[in-house]
Amino acid sequence: MPLRRRLTIAFMLAVGVSAAALAVGSYFVVRHNLMSDSVASSERQARRNLAIAPTYLNEGTDQLLAAYERSTTGFLTAGIHRGRLFSSGPSAGVRQVPVGLQRLVARGELGYERKDIAGDHYLVVGGPVGQTTELYFFFSENGLRHDLALLRNILAGGVGILVLLAGFAGALLARQTLRPVGRASDAARSLAEGLLETRLPVDGRDEFGSWAQSFNEMAAALETKIADLSAAQARERRFTADVAHELRTPLTALVGEASLLAEHIDSMPPESRRPAELLVADVGRLRKLVEDLMEISRFDSGQESVHAETVDLGALARATVRARGWEERVRLEADEVELTSDSRRLERIVANLVGNAVEHGGKDVTVRVARDGAPFVEVSDRGPGIAPEHLPHLFERFYKADAARSGGGTGLGLAIAQENARLLGGRIEVWSEPGEGTRFTLRL
Amino acid sequence: MDEHVLLVEDDPSIREVASLGLEQAGFRVTAIGDGRDALDRFRQGPFDLVVLDVMLPSLDGLEVCRAIRRESQMPIVMLSARSELHDVVVGLELGADDYVTKPFELPELVARIKAVLRRSTAGPPEGAISAGGLEIDPAGFSVRKGGEDVALTATEFRLLLELARRPKQVFTRELLLELVWNYDYLGDSRLVDVAVQRLRGKIEDDPAQPKLIQTVRGVGYRFGQG
Questions:
Q1: What is the mean pLDDT of chain B?
Q2: List of domains in chain B
Q3: Residues A288 and A361 in one domain
Q4: 3-state secondary structure of A122
Q5: Residue A3: pLDDT above 90?
Q6: Which residues of chain A lie closer than 8 angstroms to B106, CB-CB?
Q7: Mean pLDDT of A234-257
């Protein structure tokens, strides 16, 4: 159940219980007082009645009843006079007098008891007159009971209204109270979405206020931390870019020197020939590594731009394979697939994937270009495959699944290919099964 | 061949090895490490081609390129790092004929230089072409528009000639790269686009509304009305 509803209900319960307790308490106090008053006034009347009784009794019970009738109203009379029963009306009679009261009166005492007769409420007060007479007066308490019932209803209604009001007030209060919570959850969400400058308004000095302050401190700390981290990362990337850049000039000289050297290897004395060959090959490796590093750092700094034109993906794949002399080792199933993209980047991706397959996959390299909704290039081989634990890291920089596989690569080829694919709004997927082969798919 | 190349490159090692490589390829090389000196030396001439690094002390390669183009249509090959490719575009817009990215292998540089030089040597003798108010004389390397000489670089001239020889045929950028720049595989198509822009600037009445060299969207270019 949402907190808001629970709070509302708790509030209603608290108000309801206390209001009900108050109502019940006051009802009983009022009831007790009214009943006591009723007894007292009835007793007073009864004593007066008893006091004047001997005077009239000598003239008979009818005279007595008549006198009572005259003197006052509001009670019925019944009695036993010298063993004979009499009463002022059919609804009141000695038989209706509770036995306990009769016994009390028989012992010569004044007593009272409440008794319901035919749906009417009576307070029966009885007392002796001399030795031979017992008189019972039936005072109606219908009015009293009616008042009490009215009071009960009013109190119950009052409690009900209070509970309803408490419900409204509780809901309102809960909403008011929980508004900061809602705001905080919105803020946390936008923080999670990367809006690190999100802050909560700190209003009031209540717990929510101090909480909002803590939240803001946390967000500020987070923002600083992330800013520090990305500054560090930027520095790191800057450094990589600078290193690659600074390496370029000596590397250009090296590459030139090596290519001059390469032309004269045959005329070298045998003992320096092999070192020269190695030197030339290693300069080539270094060149590739520095070029890849520079390319990666260009991606990192967001300097790369797409040069879009109409490209036939199938023709591009064919040209790529032909240009690199892989025709003998690669089977092509290339449809004509036209799209608007950057042919230079596509060529790099395809060359990288096919190059990997030719180098590592060995046999049965197949390049398939087609369209299944979106254009794709699929490069598959039946080589040794890649172990599953390496698959998720394949596109990471310098990740080498297998020291033996790293061969002549720089460890950046797939990372660059993936960056290129991403820049073109596509991605490269990999499937591999050890023993079965490997399949890279460029989807655009 | 014994053509004379002016090599402008500030790094001594690159300068020396490139000089060596070019000399071994049969060129005469004058190597200079500074932009201002290079311009002075260029004016003393004569050279057949300039190889120009973009980043140079005192006067950068682009400024040198601009200065040379102001006085001459001599072939220029730019040297540039891949990370400075936007400079290359500026260089091409200033009239450089081609570029090579660092690090480069010497055979690559030699091949580029030879390709540019081949453009400025006459091909098989053929008759003058007259089209769209232009008089193109392949043998004399001259273009006249309305009786007046138009100064074109070798690259611009070769581009115009290839297009004008077969009017109304649509040339893809790849084909033009092959015919004009001698790239057999995936050259930079910006070479074509920039050269077409420059050529239009020189021969069109209104370069913004070209009539002679028209763009065929998504394919390439063609000469004359379709």
A1: 85
A2: 4-120 (3.40.50.2300), 129-223 (1.10.10.10)
A3: no
A4: strand
A5: no
A6: 256, 259-260
A7: 85
